[in-house]
UniProtKB/TrEMBL annotation, chains A, B:
<dbReference type="GO" id="GO:0005737">
    <property type="term" value="C:cytoplasm"/>
</dbReference>
<feature type="domain" description="Orn/DAP/Arg decarboxylase 2 N-terminal">
    <location>
        <begin position="24"/>
        <end position="259"/>
    </location>
</feature>
<dbReference type="GO" id="GO:0004586">
    <property type="term" value="F:ornithine decarboxylase activity"/>
</dbReference>
<feature type="active site" description="Proton donor">
    <location>
        <position position="324"/>
    </location>
</feature>
<dbReference type="InterPro" id="IPR009006">
    <property type="entry name" value="Ala_racemase/Decarboxylase_C"/>
</dbReference>
<feature type="modified residue" description="N6-(pyridoxal phosphate)lysine">
    <location>
        <position position="47"/>
    </location>
</feature>
<keyword id="KW-0456">Lyase</keyword>
<dbReference type="InterPro" id="IPR022657">
    <property type="entry name" value="De-COase2_CS"/>
</dbReference>
<dbReference type="Pfam" id="PF02784">
    <property type="entry name" value="Orn_Arg_deC_N"/>
</dbReference>
<dbReference type="InterPro" id="IPR029066">
    <property type="entry name" value="PLP-binding_barrel"/>
</dbReference>
<comment type="similarity">
    <text>Belongs to the Orn/Lys/Arg decarboxylase class-II family.</text>
</comment>
<dbReference type="InterPro" id="IPR002433">
    <property type="entry name" value="Orn_de-COase"/>
</dbReference>
<dbReference type="GO" id="GO:0033387">
    <property type="term" value="P:putrescine biosynthetic process from arginine, via ornithine"/>
</dbReference>
<protein>
    <recommendedName>
        <fullName>ornithine decarboxylase</fullName>
        <ecNumber>4.1.1.17</ecNumber>
    </recommendedName>
</protein>
<comment type="pathway">
    <text>Amine and polyamine biosynthesis; putrescine biosynthesis via L-ornithine pathway; putrescine from L-ornithine: step 1/1.</text>
</comment>
<dbReference type="InterPro" id="IPR000183">
    <property type="entry name" value="Orn/DAP/Arg_de-COase"/>
</dbReference>
<dbReference type="InterPro" id="IPR022644">
    <property type="entry name" value="De-COase2_N"/>
</dbReference>
Amino acid sequence: MTPKIARFLRESAPATPCLVLDVDRVEENYRRLQAALPLARIYYAVKANPAAPILERLVRLGSFFDAASFEEVEACLAAGARGAAVSYGNTVKKERDIRAAFERGVRLFAFDSEEELAKLARAAPGAQVYCRILVGNEGAEWPLSRKFGCEVGMARELMLAAGEMGLDPVGLSFHVGSQQTTTAAYEAAIARVAMLFTDLREAGVKVRLVNLGGGFPVRYREAVPEIEDFGTAIMGALAEHFGNALPEIIVEPGRFIVGDAGVVQSEVVLVSRKAKDDPVRWVYLDIGRFGGLAETEGEAIKYAIRTPHDGTAEGPVTVAGPSCDSVDTLYEKSNVRLPLRLAAGDKVELLATGAYVTTYASQGFNGFRPLAEHYV
Amino acid sequence: MTPKIARFLRESAPATPCLVLDVDRVEENYRRLQAALPLARIYYAVKANPAAPILERLVRLGSFFDAASFEEVEACLAAGARGAAVSYGNTVKKERDIRAAFERGVRLFAFDSEEELAKLARAAPGAQVYCRILVGNEGAEWPLSRKFGCEVGMARELMLAAGEMGLDPVGLSFHVGSQQTTTAAYEAAIARVAMLFTDLREAGVKVRLVNLGGGFPVRYREAVPEIEDFGTAIMGALAEHFGNALPEIIVEPGRFIVGDAGVVQSEVVLVSRKAKDDPVRWVYLDIGRFGGLAETEGEAIKYAIRTPHDGTAEGPVTVAGPSCDSVDTLYEKSNVRLPLRLAAGDKVELLATGAYVTTYASQGFNGFRPLAEHYV
């Protein structure tokens, strides 16, 4: 929690649940990533947090943007970004959304299938397109399975087809999974991309861009490698596989830019036990999986929780959200311990919750309204 | 899909994704449940779908309401319900919400813990309270684990304490899990409640209410027992365990009342393969888990999907939502087969999606707005 956030919580005592996010920390993270990967263009993954104060600050810093939908393209333009600074990075797009983005100046699009390529050729003629390939997601705490990307053999055919369809097959992309905690995942993916790159060049395709995706991790409860470690590993792998003929490099960080810039404050609604002698207490917060903490699904992302009683005696707890739905349980198997003095009415803070929270919040599950947002 | 919904889709061609719900079907379901359980008071579980046209129709039918939050209490009152017709059934409530509901005339509250009972005694003095006990959820497709309810021994102590605190410990509740496909779950739970009931009466507590919860299933892809079968089994179990001294009976149906009254229409955004010879196609819809289809988590609720090509040759598919998140995949292991002719731009219908969809929708995940709602 940054001093600015602490001061805001202290002085404003906002209603809970709420996110308080320090936009200066966003800038610091952006600059730090830039220093760690000086050759890369940074496309902020808008989906991590599309709030205007974040986008506006990043526009001022010269950032590029990765949009998942036409609505996100619009949000970038509204914040002052040029269309040419936006990549439409979802491989799954409606044709009318491609057209609308193209009309606003977006010139870079992702694809991973024949049908999508046909849509792009019709709705964004001549645009730069890159093909997303499937790579391993080992080491990612929020892996991306096989939903996006295609096999290398198909990627090769599609890149050749793209040129024939009047598009500019500019490069390749991959994603090692979000909250990726190992640098090896990038190294393996770069090796895979480099082989296809060479192959495509030999086939006459003027590929010149590698999109490394995002995935850079944030510290939750456990330490993660520093961004500088990722920078070193990535630059090493690029040098190894591309030599001096480095391609243009794109990265699409979301979590890394905004994750540790935000804190969710929540009120404890109830602390109870299922039986009198049960050692495990249930702690119910006024925010849960449907209130924005969707990444606690399967207990994947383990947020650190601060309470007003930290430092006093603790005991094991199950942490749950406020709704009448049992899947709205945050942590049951993750060995969370909280102070024995914790009681209804206490305010607690979930740290590093600046990414993938606000927009996930349901519009009114069980009647609960989405969390408030404060950008300081 | 009812004829009214089919006509609306045909004549209005609404933008997708959207829910179209036939309020007359809500009334039919309400009357059918009333006929199946004539001795029970029906408290509609507002969380299943809190839309005003549904609540208003149910108010006219004389329904009672089960609210999960103060916001849902307000929705019932706005629809014309009396405060006395509303039960505040969430065992996890902020004290100020209890007070606000009590001030609006709500007189029936759930609890399952000591801390909650203390809040109720302070904020709703003299109110009727019922204790939720833990029961098995075998047979439920959306089970409720241990998040709500307490062990019988603790329930006994809390019911005794409630009287001493000036509350009216009116009865007991349980929940066999949502989309419960076996009648046996209710029979076992009733037996459990009846024992505690007798025990409490002997201890001098004037218990007189049994809240059977909800859980009555809707037909998705597979057939489920008819509501009349549940009625017969429940009345049989009540007669067996309570004899002629039947308690007041409450049921809290949500899914059963609105589930098959609604249809979600969605547009196919992309059909693709991961490799050229891959037999499985990926079908991406413009609604997914974060757009309202949250109950497809773990492929729990298996919606039937109608396409314009039904009856033509089919093949295996993975069905996913439109967002850049892999967990936004609906069906990967459920052996869904869809027509080979399905393509981007086709409209498909997800049947029996009237419950637990609209309010689950995220407010803007990946920039996608919540689905539209049409009540006809």
